[in-house]
Amino acid sequence: xxxxxxxxxxxxxxxxxxxxxxxxxxxxxxxxxxxxxxxxxxxxxxxxxxxxxxxxxxxxxxxxxxxxxxxxxxxxxxxxxxxxxxxxxxxxxxxxxxxxxxxxxxxxxxxxxxxxxxxxxxxxxxxxxxxxxxxxxxxxxxxxxxxxxxxxxxxxxxxxxxxxxxxxxxxxxxxxxxxxxxxxxxxxx
Length: 189
Prior knowledge:
Layout: H1 2-5, H2 27-30, H3 48-72, H4 76-101, H5 115-126, H6 129-157, H7 161-188
Helix pairs in contact: 3-4, 3-5, 3-6, 4-7, 6-7
């Protein structure tokens, strides 16, 4: 399975990267690091279109939240991580579009944040500078846990072969991002 993960051109489809919405500037930063078990609210898409919607929304969330980190963080390791996320998620969206086009019938990929993801972006944007790095990393851990659970679930139970392959191939890079986010999260606490 790990060999499939590293196939060229497929890096991440971080579907389901939404996290618990924050209610104030510090709510995202105050949440404890997530456990190794999949989050209870991690969803497995019921259809190929739902997978494409979740994966593209997830990619968009990761791109936008990472661009925000590039604007706000002064930590070189966090900025390097954010740059990697932007690049990988742009590649992931391109690979997702290709996989969706090969489905019969073709599936539409229209990246758009969910209401929950938009709320999470708003909360992250409102986080004060002193707490931003930790809040960003906490959000990345939660988002990648959800994405990994969704990818693994759709890879096993999905209904569209090209998308199940996409999910299978992207699970490894998502897991690597999760590991790196946890590593950086531990270094900032």
